[in-house]
Amino acid sequence: VQLVESGGGLVQPGGSLRLSCAASGFIFGSYGMAWVRQAPGKGLERISYISCGGYYTNYVDDVKGRFTIPRDNDKNTLYLHMNSLNPEGAAVYYCPNRYGARLHGYDNWGQGTQVIVSS
Fold it and tell me: Phi-psi category of 73—alpha, beta or left, where left has phi over 0 and alpha has psi -120 to 50?
């Protein structure tokens, strides 16, 4: 199983960034996917989740209306579209997977991609 996050980098406050998560080694469409971030000195925070087929999504209040979590099951890829980034968005972003319709826990993690929000 491999989950490879990419697309992080330096962005100015108010800017946009698109993260990608390339998945391999498992049946992508059978797994729910999440974006979890860890800001410097803080714990892990799940910011968004999408179900196996993409019909259900949820977002933490802080990112609602600014972030979206589309997935392409044909390309085995998850995305995170981030708009209106603020300094609180600076973190390492991970895309763990979760088999089936389980409500808790994650099965695999990638190495993460770092987002820096600074002028």
Answer: alpha
Q: What is the DSSP letter of 62?
A: G
pLDDT of 100 higher than 90? no
Q: What is the largest CA-CA distance in the chain?
A: 41
Q: Is the pLDDT of residue 102 over 90?
A: no
Q: How far apart are CA 44 and CA 29, in angstroms?
A: 25
d(CA 115, CA 46): 15
Cross-strand pairs, 81 = 18, 68
What number of other Cβ atoms are within 10 A of residue 113's Cβ? 21
Tokens (6 digits) for 10: 């330096």
Amino acid (one-letter) located at 24: S
Residue-wise pLDDT for 58-90, tens only, equals 999 999 999 999 999 999 999 999 999 999 999
Residues in the chain: 119
Q: Which two tokens stand for residue 90?
A: 């600076």
